[in-house]
Amino acid sequence: MSEHSHDHGHAHHNHNHGTGKTLLFALVFTTAFAIVEVFAGLMANSLALLSDAGHMLTDSLSLAVGAFSAWLANKPASRRHSFGLQRAEVLGALFNVIFMFLVIVYIAYEAILRMLDTPEVDGGTVLLIGGLGLLVNIIVAWVLMRGEQTMNVRGALLHVMGDLLGSVAAVAAGAIIYFGGPAIMDPILSVFVCVLILVSAVRLLGAVTRVLMEGVPQGIEPGDVSQALSEIEGVRAVHDLHIWSLSSTSHAMAAHVDLDAMTQWHRVLPQMQTVLRERFGIEHSTLQPEDAEIRLGCVVGVGCGSDGAHVHR
């Protein structure tokens, strides 16, 4: 019988615990200022301020989803979920991206209406509140960038960077209008911010899709993994190699390993696990040893022994 070996990593639990605290701090800070900005935007009749406030409120929701997802992802594995709930992080990021697309469409629609019929805007209020919002967003972005860079945090950071750009647009619009410029700059700058956010949202959507479709993680080349394992003494070849992500910080691999002799497996296995963990960041591996001579015999049609390995054709 071929034996299977498993190597499980559990470092993601600590990562997600720290991620949850980071997102919770950002949630409280962002929500508090968003409420202030909504009232200021209504008083100043500024779409730049209201769009920035809208971004911040969606940030609050995204940060809440992120914190909840990080809490779920920190749950240990169970019989029903043998890998734990690490994919909760990915689902949280997907929710944030989709929600951001909806916000972008709404703000762009409002901006077009205001370009056609531009209302009076209180430039002084926009400049003041936009400046305070810029400071708040810089602090929140700094906190998130210093935390663990999981996909969940990247999704939340996408929203915050959108807010930061929105605050810059609000400050610019407020300054232009305050010093006598046209009020139409308010909706024009809002559209510009939407375009910038859209680019980042599309990139994050690509990363989320890669994980959900179980694609090979970014930065890992299967050929390099196979070659590195094959260089270990006693390993003839590696085949049926599959690499995928459980979350943005946890990767898994399954493969069949051809050995010169099955008696070498207990020596080879720890070396392979070390290479996978230290060189490629793959914490969970499922490796099946096979006798190289027997497998090659199966391939050329000589026949397999009683413990012959199966071959995918």
TrEMBL record:
Predominant cellular place of this UniProt entry's protein: membrane
Domain of life of the source: Bacteria
Which organism is this entry from?
Halopseudomonas salina
Q: Transmembrane region positions?
A: 23-44, 56-73, 93-112, 124-144, 156-181, 187-205
Residue intervals of the Cation efflux protein cytoplasmic domain: 221-290
- UniProtKB keywords: Ion transport, Membrane, Transmembrane, Transmembrane helix, Transport, Zinc, Zinc transport
What Pfam families is this protein classified in?
Answer: Cation_efflux (PF01545), ZT_dimer (PF16916)
Respond yes or no to whether keyword Zinc is given for this record: yes
- Give the record's membrane topology: Multi-pass membrane protein
Where is this chain's protein located in or outside the cell? Membrane
Would you tell me the protein name for this molecule? Cation transporter
Q: Where is the Cation efflux protein transmembrane domain?
A: 23-213
Q: Does the keyword Disulfide bond feature in the UniProt annotation?
A: no
